[in-house]
Specification:
The protein is mainly alpha-helical. A two-stranded antiparallel ribbon has the order 1-2. Helix 2 packs across helix 5. 24% of the residues are buried. About 12% of the residues have low confidence.
Amino acid sequence: MKLATKLGALTLAFTANVFAHGPVTPQAIDSSTLPQLGEEWSDTNPYRDVEGDMKKEILRVGASAYNQNCARCHGLEAISGGIAPDLRYLAADYDGDEWYIYRVQNGAVRNGAVYMPKMTEHLSQEALWAVRSFVESVAPEQ
């Protein structure tokens, strides 16, 4: 086999590996430093009114979880580039929490294509409410 043919085959194999990463799986987040919430989902964000050092920890965990699992579609610092909803404008109340819970528990599938996975299959309730808290912390004043 000629050297050019070998190099071409090697380049093709390398290119296929770079572009064919397959489905993206959400990354697990260590939420053991947060107040534990149990199995039953809260109707509203249980971390919304927490203050002090614990609030800083909630926001730290939430920012990490968001950046690893949400930013690629919902945008860096929660500022959407138009691919997915801008979560900063989701109301910080019962109605916004109800929509958030529905979406993280059920994901989003259109015409058989998964636009958002069921996040509860990969992240704990604590991690997901920390994400919600982080997004609320960077929301513009309304």
